[in-house]
Structure formats: C-alpha cells, structure tokens
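Dock zinc ion; give full complex structure.
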Amino acid sequence: MHMVAGVDLGGTAINYTLVNGREQFLIEGLCEYPARSKEGPEVCLRQIEDGLKIAVEKAGIPMADVVVVGLDTPGPASADGVLSAEGSTNFVHPSWAGFDIRGALSKRLGKPVTYLNDGNAGALWGHFAIFGANNRQTSISAIIGTGLGGGVIIEGNVVKGRKGFGGELGHVLIPYQSIPGTGGLKPECNCGRTGDLESMCSLTAIEQTLLPFFLARYSGHELGKMGDIHQAAKLVRGFAERGDPMCQEIFRVQARALGVFFDEMVNTFDPDALIVGGGAVETTEAFQRWFIQEIRAGMPPQREEQADIPVHVMPNGDTAGARGAAIEALKFARQNHLGHLSASEV
Ligand SMILES: [Zn+2]
C-alpha cells in the first residue's frame, strides 16, 4: 500500500511517522532516532535515512511503498529548505550554512522530499486534526514553547512566504500595553523587537520578563528564593495549575497577549479556527479550558459574525512536527499524482 513519511528533525532527535491514503497514521506515539546534527550534514542525513528504514520496518511495509517524504526542521530556512547562511542553534556545524537540506535528502533517498519549518509543520498538523487533509479552511496556530512558533494555513495551504518567514507569528508586534496589570513592563524579544507575541507569550518571556516582573510584586515567593530564574521559569506552569496566584497571573498575561494577537489575525484573515499548542497547554483539561477563556477575555469585542470563532487546543504535541510534515508530503503526492494516495484509490 502506498504511503508517505513525515520526518521531524529536531535539535537532538529525529521523529518519524507514516500516513496512508486513508489519512491513517501508521505509527502511534514517538518513533525516535538520534539526529547527530552537530556533526554536520553528511552524518545527519545518514541518520535520517537509517532511522527511516527502522520506522518503515517497524510498520511492516517495504521502503518502495513510501512515495514522498515530508521533512521539517527548525528554521531559519528558505521556503524550499535551504538553511540560513547565518547558521542557527540547531545547525552549528559550519557545513550547514546555506545547506540545501531538502534537496540533499531527496537525492540521498531517491524520492521527492517536501519541506516545512517546524512551526509551520505543527500548524499544518493542528489544522489537519480539525479539518482533515482535503479542505479549504483557514486557521491560525500559535505554539507556545521556548519561543513562539506557529503558522497560517489559508484554504488548506501553508503560507510559507517569499523567504520562508511566513507564519513567524512570534515576532508580530502586539499592543501589549493594553493588557491589564502589566504597567511598566518592557518585554524585549531576542529578535530585537519590543512587545512582539514571543516577548509576552513563551517560556523565554516567562524567564526574561514576566517572572522577574511579578516576583518584584510578590516578595517572598518560593520561586524567587530559588536563585535560579532559568529553573524557576520552568516551574511556573505547574505552580499555576496548582492554583498559585502569581503563576496564574503570569499565565493570564500570556493568554491575554494571545487574545490580543488572535484579534489581529481575526481581522486580517477571518479564519475558521484559532489553534493553541505547545508545552504551555500540555496540561489538565481544566487548565486548558481556563487558559482558552482568558484568551477570549483578552480579545476586544468582536462583531457578531466573528464572536463565535472556535479556539482549539492542538492534539499530540510531541508528534506534531512529524505529522504535519507527513500531511504536506501527502498533499504533494496527491497534487502530483504520485502513487495511489487519493481517498478514492485506497
Ligand atoms: Zn521577536
């Protein structure tokens, strides 16, 4: 049976999935292999190939049945999968600069390879989980992790942009001064902007801005006594879930920032759905519900037709990249009539 593969190349591990024409994923949970990206492209590409062989064997299908491979990696990279000449934290070996990772993998495997950055792959997975692969819907996904990634899907297609920076939602400026309880806050992002979404809504925002800001207002707080802001920042979500007032306040501010941002997106795209994912919402259902309520509370009043826009939590956070990459590969296979993968053929 023909299928496509999704390959999510992360900082230290590669995660795989397989999907068939019925849009069923053949690998449940994580299927990981070491990335060894610090050792350069030659070693890393071999790792990708070796890991894919293992994944395919596990699923009990011959490699020849995989007609397209979808790859996603952290950026920055061009829309076509050429890594930035400036390098990045995940691709530190000098040979990665300006490397065409999509083209090189395609040559190595002897199969077409599609490319998405990891934020856009996650966004496509979230979109697919709600609407399926054959759809003309529009959605905006924000994925809250160390930074803030995400993507814009318009009528079923990922907006990659001219240089591959489409859907860099973390660096969109928001009117953060309108969020109650943040007077005097100066949220600076690593990108050089002040007051973009990532500077208000990410683990980095908690560590660099929100936690120091609120610790100054909650003197004697347990997290302040730790003396290690990096470790303390990682504990904020757990504290918030258990009802700690300061940490709930930090999550409320993040949710409100997201609400202000989503409002900008609603007025730009009038989307069918807003989707939130990432570590920040990998929590209890009760906490997710509260967080979404606070997002809505952060949105200025909508006109009547837009007020009921659904806000979803993205499922399967760990495998989102690989699954999104696989969906992009499936779309490519169908558009180019590669293999038997249309819903009517399987
Ligand atoms: Zn930024």
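Observed: The chain has a mean pLDDT of 95.
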